[in-house]
Every structure is written in C-alpha cells, then in structure tokens.
Amino acid sequence: MKLSEALSQWYLENQRPLPFRESRDPYAIWVSEIMAQQTRIDSMIPYYLRWIEQWPTVEALAQAPLQDVLQLWQGLGYYNRARKLHQGAQLVVEKYGGKLPDDQKVLQTIPGIGAYTAGAIASIAFGKRAPAVDGNVLRVTARILEMEEDITKKTTVDRVSQQVYEWMEDCDPSVFTQGLMEIGALICTFKKPSCLLCPLSSFCQSFARGTMEQYPIKKSAKKPQELQVYTFLIRNRKNQILLSEDHSDGLMEGLLRLPQYAQIPESVKTAVFVENRKHVFSHRIWRMACYQLECEDVVLEKTHWVDCDQLDSIALVTAHRKWLKKMMEAKQHEQN
Ligand code: SF4
C-alpha cells in the first residue's frame, strides 16, 4: 500500500467532524485556514461560525467595514490576518469577480495568502495536486524522512513541498491534504507522537529507529523584544474613557487602544499608578506600568473620548481590553 492510500483511508475513517470540513467552498476554506493559523481549532470554531453567518460570501466580506471585521476577530489575536482577509476579499471581487482562482501560484498573489494557504485552498476546494506545508506537515515529514535540515529554512520547506507533491500522486488531493493536517494535529504531535496509532508508521524512518523525539530539527527561535510602556486609563465625569488611535509602533493598526507611551507625558503626570501588567505577543512583550486619572480635559495627540457603554462594540487591543475590563468590574463593585 502507498503512503497516500494509508493516509487517505485513515482520514476517511477518523476525521473529526469540523464545520469547515463540511464545505468545499473555497472562500470558507480560506477563512478557516487563516483563522486556524496560530489559533487552536476548538477556540476558532465559534469565530468561524459567526464569520460565515455574518459574511457568507467573498462579496459580503469585501463590502463589510474594516472596523466590523476587526471587531468580530477580537480575541483571536494577530489582527493582521483579519485585515489581509478583508483586503484579499476586495481584490478577489475586483479582479476575479468574487471567485477565488484555483491555481496555487495565482492564489499567492492575493493579500494574506501564502504558499501554505494557497496549497490548502487549491487542494481541498479545487482538488488540485498542490502541497500545503505548515508546521504540522513539516514535523510529520521530517520524522518520516529523518530530515537533518533545519525546518525553519526555506530550502527545507521547498524539499518538504516537493516530497508532499510526490506523495500526492494518484490520490484525492483534498483528502490527502486534510489527512496530513489531521495526522499532525492528532497523532504526530509535537510533544508525544502516538506512533502505535499512526497509519504512516510503516513508512516512517524515525519510528523504525525510535528517533521520533529528535525530529524536527529547528534552530532556537529569537527571544521576543521586551518594551517598557506606560498605559493610562483616563476617565471624565461623563462616564467616558479616553482612547487612542496612535499606531506609530506598527502594531494592530485599525484597533483602538488606551493612551500608551514609552515615557510618561507631562499632561498626565498626576495620574496614579495602579499596577504592572505584562502582555506577550509573538515577537514582542509589553511590560505595562498602568496608571489611572480622573480629569475633564487632557492634551494627548490622536485621542478622543468614548462613552463607556460603547466599549463592547469597539475593536480594542486585547492587552488593554483585559485591563479595562478588570478596572470597570472593580469600579462597578465599589458602586454596589
Ligand atoms: S510513526 Fe510516529 S513519528 Fe512517524 S509519522 Fe507516525 S506519529 Fe509521526
């Protein structure tokens, strides 16, 4: 039996019933693949269902205001994914009449669609022999072949793509791609591969030699950069909070945030220190010294007052929403 047959048979019998697996709609697969990047499947499913209900087609997404898109994305993190999906939908409407192209190379010209997502859409939705290589597929392949190359290198990704392409000969690409993803997610996991349950064990060199835990080879990731910042919760007597639209640090464009600076501005020198908080991004850590201030008038660039009862409908950066929520609850508690 060939590797692709063993994999496809296993997948058809063992796949999880996930909502986006019920669809061959390229748009739905595009959305699910983008959401699943850097997010656990069980966490992204409610977002996926809300998204597809609100914007069931590329056209509907293209016409949506960016603020609504970011608002629905709130909680998933890595907001650039949402922005790119929105831009991508607009381009697909303008250039392709709302229909995603079926070619892996052409798909990669759409904002936010890289080689992996293009491979996933082309193979799952259009049945094309197009490899979709993400971290899971790299890990599984590196173990099967006992690959000594660093999986963070492009040359390694290219080699894995070529290998996956060869494995895909004479099989249903949609089933194969989803099967390989499922093996990576359920069986050949990072910490503890379940080799005795794996349909690929008879093809796997590292299983044969008991070396599974030595693969994949990956050079250590760069440490995230730590930034000390000063964050201000500023309220007035009209039950309003001051929010900032400043994104000069290049992070989370389109989302509002609490006023936050590398140094304490003169105009808020009287603010009272509340606590230190930490928020970890993929490549950056904010060490936030959090202050609050009650005042009616303050001079801070790119800020405006927002009614507290509107905060739930505003797309705010998660680091600040969490602190704001804690402070609002404490205030509510005081008043009761
Ligand atoms: S046999 Fe083990 S190491 Fe090899 S692919 Fe399967 S789970 Fe991974």
3D architecture notes:
The chain is of the alpha+beta class and 336 residues long. It folds into two domains: 3-214, Hypothetical protein, domain 2 (Endonuclease III, domain 1, Orthogonal Bundle), CATH 1.10.340.30; 225-335, Nucleoside Triphosphate Pyrophosphohydrolase, CATH 3.90.79. It is built from 13 helices and six strands. The strands form two sheets. It has a four-stranded mixed sheet with strand order 3-1-5-4, with helices on one face. It has a two-stranded antiparallel sheet with strand order 2-6. The longest helix has 18 residues, at 318-335. The protein starts with a helix and ends with a helix. Bound molecules: iron/sulfur cluster. Iron/sulfur cluster is lined by residues 140, 143-144, 187-188, 193, 195, 198, 200-201, 204, 206-207, 212.
Major β-sheet annotation: 4 strands, mixed
What's the architecture of the largest domain, going by CATH?
Answer: Orthogonal Bundle
Query: What structural class is derived from the secondary structure elements?
Result: alpha+beta
Poorly predicted ranges (pLDDT <50, ≥5 residues)?
Answer: none
- Kindly provide the radius of gyration, computed on alpha-carbon positions and rounded to a whole number of angstroms: 24 Å
CATH topology of the largest domain: Endonuclease III, domain 1
Strand content: 5-15%
Q: Number of domains in the coordinates?
A: 2
The average pLDDT is: 93
CATH class (first level) name of the largest domain = Mainly Alpha
Bound ligands, named by name, code or SMILES: iron/sulfur cluster
Count of helical segments? 13
The CATH homologous superfamily of the largest domain is named: Hypothetical protein, domain 2
Terminal residue distance: 70 Å
